[in-house]
Amino acid sequence: MPVPMIYCAKKQFRIALFTLLLTHLFWVPWVSAQPIASEDALWISGFEGQVISARFPLIDGAYQLPDYSVADQLEWVIAELAVGETTTVAEVQQRFTSAFDAPTIADFFNDNLRINFPDAAILDLIAMTPVSAVAIIDGTSGPTSSGFLQINSQYSGDELISFLQVQNFFGTIQFPDDQILELDAALDKFQSFQPDNSIFVGYIDQQNQCQPISTRSALTPRALGSIFKMWVLGGLAEEVADVQIDTSDPITLVAAERASGGTINSEPLGTVFSVQDMATLMMGISDNTATDHLHELVGRAGIGQVVQDYGVADPDILLPFLNISEQFHVFSRFDLPTALSYVNGTEPFQETFLSNQIEPLGPSFPTNFPFFHQQLLTDGTWAASPADVCQTLAGLRATAEDNGALELVDIAMASQAAFPNLRNEWDRVWYKGGSLASGANGLHVLANAWLLENSGDFPPYVVVGLANNPAGGIDQFNINSVLARVIELVRRFEP
User: What pLDDT, in 10s, does the model give residues 60-108?
Assistant: First the structure.
């Protein structure tokens, strides 16, 4: 019997909610496609990549999980699915927040999950951060369907489960028409969806430069959504390499740096995070409040320097480098002529406006916005080209190992894969996504960027897809289907 879609969470949670600047988790099961003919394969010889250790190694069929509270909770959930186990109300009360009805959750385990996923194991770990995990599970007997499991836990206090969702996972990845597309046709289809799309498929060469395989409008800047957080991470890594910051340093959650859409806004003020955990939350769940704390820690000037050092073709588009709350204020705290005067102003004008009018507004959480200018979601926000994003990934990959700087980057960037089965194909999976939306018209910006790499002769491959539509209405499922096919093609390239 199929498992119904189950949502067990606080009453105010809405699964369909799109929040500005939150990254999106897209899950689509994998379907095999026809092999690429040899004449279509990319041949690159003599590339010597880094020796890469998987961030979540699979040993004796089990993923080795980091020391996170949510990892402990995930392992408990899996253990409860063993045949012969019984989940008690007392166990639920010990593991879940009081927002859950304990008898209902116990029945959910005993009468549903364990029956449908007996002796379940994790088949694929899609995402893992200090407060959240996404995994594909499957039972060793009984029903043949796999399950898509999402779990969140508190960072502070008793570190209880705050969200649990399990639903069937049927194994369909692309729409049927996309499963037979070759690379150029897939890129053409991606371009057909929106008026302002751009896509880059390529690799990073031995000189740390991005080289194209196939692209469309790859030099044209587009709105990025949360992909901009990669430059914050780069600035942080530089500070770590220079011994100005240690990855274990504490960061206290303060009201002055809380931003709209921040998951950790639910944690008590005064909660202490490590620098590494903040960075992982910023990249893995695109946490806006973590981002603004790190933006403050590194400083606007340091992040701006990284934008230039990484080789962004037109860094002035990104400078001065706003944090989340500041960008929200541009969207929503000024009338449109005033907001446009900032967006279209010279850099000296913007710096003065920022100091005198934006910074005094403080954090964007909690607040009521008097305006919301939809046109600025694509025309008044962080922007760069797909080629710039690739070069930024190259810059992050070239981070010095000094004092754990490269490890900081690798842990943060590897915490999210977005699609299933990538960790089974690649030693290194880095991902960052982003979106900007309005309540009336849905997605105006949808951005995805992957770096995929194996040890040995394979170079690091990069896929960057930026979808922009000033009118909104971007269909994430069409975009995901084509990007999934592109990634499938990339992993068939030959060394």
Answer: 889 999 999 999 999 999 999 999 999 999 999 999 999 999 999 999 9
Q: Which amino acid is at 258?
A: R
Q: Apex CA 172: angle with CA 171 and CA 175, to 5°?
A: 175
One-letter identity of residue 64: Q
**N- to C-terminal Cα separation, the chain:** 45
CB 163 within 8 A of CB 100: no
Residue with tokens 């400078």: 319
In this predicted model, what pLDDT tens digit does every residue of 384-415 receive, in sequence order? 999 999 999 999 999 999 999 999 999 999 99
Q: Is the peptide bond before 386 cis (omega within 30 degrees of 0)?
A: no
Neighbouring CB atoms inside 10 A of 50's CB total 14
> Hey, what are 359's tokens?
């910074």
Radius of gyration of the chain (CA): 22
Rounded to whole angstroms, the Cα distance separating 29 from 44 reads: 29
Beta-bridge partners for 196: 468
Nearest CA-CA partner of 372 in 14, 20, 15: 20
Query: What CA–CA distance (Å, rounded) separates 397 from 433?
Result: 17
Q: What six digits make up the tokens of 71? A: 């990892």
284: which residues sit within 8 A by CB, 6+ positions away?
Answer: 127, 128, 129, 132, 412, 415, 416
Q: The tokens of 430 are what?
A: 């880095």
Residue 40 vs residues 45, 71, 246: alpha-carbon distances, Å:
16, 41, 46
Amino acid at 160: L
Token pair for 124: 């694929």
Predicted structure pTM score: 0.91
**Could you give the CA distance from residue 395 to residue 390 in angstroms, rounded to a whole number?**
9
DSSP 74-88: HHHHHHHTSTT----
Contact 452, 429 (CB under 8 A): yes
Contact 166, 80 (CB under 8 A): no
Burial of 411: CB neighbours in 10 Å, binned 0-12, 13-18, 19+: buried
